[in-house]
Design a protein that fits this description.
about 180 residues; mainly alpha; two-stranded antiparallel ribbon; 8 helices; 4 strands
Length: about 180
């Protein structure tokens, strides 16, 4: 579905499952509540009613801010748009991304270890080494940070996976240019 930022008016794409959740505008950075899908939208604005344009691209950065997991099919659809149908590059991306992506269950288990004086391992796992070490030496900031991270772990894993997807996309594009 398409959502419009109430602050700057930028149109962005979001999953229907994101309705009612908080999103961040890719244009101005303001946070707003994503509305429900509009079934009465004109045909020109309904998905699959017209050829795809650049405005129809999936915005992984916006999806990362929602606590719902970003599933692999969404990431693969995003990369197909970015690589414009180059099947070899898409397969290369899929293989690298699946091997590098972070799992929510692993992050949760590592976060729970903070209650046993092993705090910060989840942050290190997600690539945030400085805060991971700070959590380790302060017992998860006296367990307050640990509890907050337990609530926000889905968003942190999403952000880490979006960063990994962008990194892998850059690697695939670089190897594609060398050919």
């Amino acid at each position: 579905m398409q959502v419009k930022c109430p602050s700057c008016g930028k149109l962005m794409n979001a999953l229907d499952s994101a309705a009612g959740r908080q999103g961040k505008c890719a244009g101005c950075g303001s946070v707003f509540t994503i509305g429900t899908p509009n079934a009465t939208a004109p045909a020109a604005q309904r998905p699959n009613s017209r050829p795809r344009t650049r405005d129809d691209n999936i915005d992984l950065a916006m999806l990362a801010l929602v606590n719902a997991p970003i599933e692999d099919p969404v990431v693969f659809q995003w990369v197909e748009q970015k690589l414009e149908g180059d099947e070899d590059a898409i397969e290369s991306f899929r293989a690298m991304y699946v091997n590098r992506k972070k799992q929510k269950a692993t992050a949760h288990i590592l976060n729970i270890l903070a209650f046993f004086c092993l705090g910060g391992l989840h942050r290190i796992y997600l690539g945030d080494y400085v805060l991971g070490l700070a959590h380790f030496f302060t017992f998860g900031f006296c367990w307050i940070g640990t509890v907050l991270d337990f609530i926000l772990i889905n968003r942190r894993v999403n952000l880490a996976n979006v960063a990994i997807a962008n990194e892998v996309l850059m690697l695939v594009r670089a190897t594609r240019r060398r050919r």
